[in-house]
Amino acid sequence: MSRLEAVIFDVDGTLVDSERDGHRVAFNAAFEEAGLSDRWDVATYGRLLKITGGAKRLASWFESTGRSPIESTELAERLHKRKTQIMRRLIEDGQVHARPGAHQLIHQIEASGVQVHVATTGTRAWVEPLLERAFGNRFHTVVTGTEVPDLKPSPAAYLEVLRRTGCPPEDAVAVEDSANGVRAAVAADLRCLAAHNPYTCDDDLSGAELVAKGLDDPALVAWFHRRLRSRCRPNE
Fold first, then answer.
1. DSSP-H helix ranges across the chain
2. Is residue 1 domain-resident?
3. pLDDT digit string (tens) for 105-121?
4. I need a labelling partner for 40 at 20 to 30 A (CA). Which of 2, 30, 50, 120 fits?
5. Which candidate, 113, 190, 122, places its Cα nearest to that of 158?
6. pTM metric for this prediction
7. In a domain, 28, yes or no
8. Do 119 and 222 sit in the same domain of this protein?
9. One GO MF term, please (predicted)?
10. Per the residue annotation, which of 10, 17, 177, 217 is the catalytic one?
11. What confidence tens digit (pLDDT) does each residue in 96-107 have?
């Protein structure tokens, strides 16, 4: 196995518990402020997560509820801007938290001299303050959907991280939570570890080298322990 030089994390549902009690809450607040009757319960939002990108998710929902394509797109763009503002407020209020095991895993990786990066389809307007509040300034490279509009399962975000860092894909591993994320990582020729959450536990994650229940899953922790230990002891 190639020497491990970089770990590239997804954000939503991977590093942070942001979907159910973060984004979903922000979307519903944006609906209410706009005087719309639309509301996304936990199950509905889980189904909508198959659509990557908040604005696309909104547009698809509006079309499915009878709006025209033009009206749906315009309404989605307007609501998504407001939703992002609300999401930032939730982050500032400490309502979005790191997943169990995230801090410990990142610390373990950093202590071995391996760089940690981010490749997400989320917009920088909320990703940056979330990472700063939840983890501090610990990521060497952060690529978001603001810079790379081709959303997962496109490999574009991962390819951009590799381009910026100069790291060969065989020397890196991606950590994801969803089918779209795993497909994106594999399309970028990356090994991928999947740490699913309640929303993605039924996703097809077969493209991942390892499927774990979370970042604190003993199998995932052991995977990193073996690779990082061998990195620190190259003569083994």
1. 24-33, 42-48, 54-64, 69-92, 102-111, 124-135, 156-165, 179-187, 218-232
2. no
3. 999 999 999 999 999 99
4. 120
5. 190
6. 0.91
7. yes
8. yes
9. hydrolase activity
10. 10
11. 999 999 999 999
